[in-house]
Amino acid sequence: MAATAPVITLHALKSSCSSCSLRELCLPMGLTSEEVEQVDHLVAARRRVRSGATLYRAGDAFGSLYAVRSGFFKSMVLSDDGRDQVTGFHMAGEILGMDGIGTEKHACSIVALEDSEVCIIPFPRLEEISAKIRGLQRQFHRLMSREIVRDQGVMLLLGSMRAEERVAAFLLNLSQRFLARGYSPSDFNLRMTREEIGSYLGIKLETVSRVFSKFQEGRLVEVKQKHIRILDVVGLKGLTGKEAC
Amino acid sequence: MAATAPVITLHALKSSCSSCSLRELCLPMGLTSEEVEQVDHLVAARRRVRSGATLYRAGDAFGSLYAVRSGFFKSMVLSDDGRDQVTGFHMAGEILGMDGIGTEKHACSIVALEDSEVCIIPFPRLEEISAKIRGLQRQFHRLMSREIVRDQGVMLLLGSMRAEERVAAFLLNLSQRFLARGYSPSDFNLRMTREEIGSYLGIKLETVSRVFSKFQEGRLVEVKQKHIRILDVVGLKGLTGKEAC
DNA sequence: CGTTGCGTTGAATAAGGTCAAATAGAGTGG
DNA sequence: CCACTCTATTTGACCTTATTCAACGCAACG
What's the pLDDT tens digit per position in A217-230? Predict the structure, then answer.
């Protein structure tokens, strides 16, 4: 296992939070430029993760958080009997690893779905510095809280929506996240397989495929393998709930 | 709405974290007695919440966390179209309100399922003090992280288990939490209705009822309305996954 | 140009949902 | 204390949805 192989020190690369286009989505969000400079020192190194490789595995010792610099990840939890469940998809600017803080061991596994890069944030140093920089402390707490809220949203989806609603909600969520990162919200490539989508949504891959086909018939989206073009946002939103209004 | 009516200052009641039997489950966990004393000052007041009353509602402004002193709560999120989903049940020692940190507004609602009492922890003061007391900072981060991990566990349940497995997992989870609080793990009263259980588990109340009946036939549990007696823990565990092993 | 993995589609089946009716308690007012 | 209400729960019959199993198509790749 070459799990920790490609680690690059940050300064050698002359790139930092201060100049990172993602800082508005990430940990330095809302900090003064002075403070951001301190956060720069926090981010010790970067790590490349090849498509299909694992950033960390459930059970691994926890030591750092990771900020996604580029690429795309899935997180998954394993049940005792071997079944697994995709619990999220993660893109640039998002923080990974918070599942490990509670027990010092990671509770889920993170796998890259395309060649990716993360910033390594040693957690003890984050705690140390966030105790000094009020804004950093706040932002870190905000991020953890949002993760909780996000998970509750997924619980709502898994607990009370039907297959079509789930898929519609999934596409709209992706769309919005691409938009927030400056990509087209209506035209994008899925990085994950039908099976991974199905696992995330609590349905089978065949059902995902059927729903895609149905949406295509209904001229809501255009699906060509992994490429998605959203044709009717309003129509999709209409499916996720507010049917009658 | 008398939402904030019964607030009692803590010192008047001469009860504090230092003397609280729940401190090993709660925020002061792992602190020195000196530090616990500082946390005592943090907890400004207590609030009683009658059965059926709301601690806070989705959309309410966020200002404090709440430590459950006694009683039983459910948390629920609402979808745009009015459906709701129970996202958790909460008992003594647990911290509520972390969903509000990210946006300054609560994302879910908390309702008492029996007469209950919470300690009010003003969040700005928690941030302030936790910046000074390293152990408190750590414990708070641990608690948030555990909440994330807990939610991932629920996602696994909702995404990949069948009705019987869900109910078995639910009963075992409750059992374990009662045990951790010194109550019988095999003999307890449900505080929630079948409908609330069903909402939490992503199944209908009739299904919950049928599964209970089936478990009873199989001599796994004894169900008398709200009273549960677990007869065969191993059998229940066998249902939640590791069928074949 | 066959192999391999991923995706689509169809038919049969099972799981759980829906609707409806019967029952059981808990609490209330007489 | 008893009859009465109200709500929660149980159970049955039927129906819908999604799963399962299987076959086939397609695209990338050696």
Answer: 999 999 999 999 99
